[in-house]
Amino acid sequence: MKTVGKVSSVACAFLTAAASLVFVAKAASAPPQKSAEDIYSHNCAICHGKDGAGKTTQGKRTKAKDVRDTVKVMSEDEMIKVVQKGKGASMDAYGDELKPDQIKAVVEYYRGLAK
Fold first, then answer.
1. Segment 14-18 long-range contacts (CB within 8 Å, at least 24 positions apart)
2. According to the model, what pLDDT value does residue 101 have?
3. Within the chain, how many helices (H) and strands (E) appear?
4. CA dist., res. 52 & res. 55, Å (int)
């Protein structure tokens, strides 16, 4: 048995295998991240509609704007702030519920509906 410093090669192999198992177990237990489309469908489409037109019953009630009009007057950064902080009484804030990269992805998805 060869020793490296004071640690044998068997011990090194065991530690490497154990570390690999911990890494694999942790990766397997992490919940899958929802796609931007899934988040939009679950949180946004009720008002903004699947197509971003805002013509849903709830969208009409809250006066949700059509994305094709919104992208002309709001930057991506402005939209991100609205998603993070909400807008008046009609739009909930999602800054505590969604991660920054998820919010950015949802805004990009929403803006993409205008194309």
1. none
2. 97
3. 7, 2
4. 8
Distance of CA 43 to the CA centre of its chain: 11
Task: Report d(CA 14, CA 66) in Å as an integer.
Answer: 59
> Which tokens in the block code for residue 55?
């013509």
Of 13-17, 31-35, 38-42, 84-88, the one with minimum mean pLDDT is 13-17
User: Measured between alpha carbons, how far is 107 from 80 in angstroms, rounded to an integer?
Assistant: 6
State the pLDDT at residue 43: 96
The C-alpha atoms of residue 60 and residue 56 are separated, in whole angstroms, by: 6
The pLDDT value given to residue 105 = 98
DSSP-derived letter for residue 74 is: -
Structure tokens at 104: 């950015």
Flag whether pLDDT at 10 surpasses 60: no
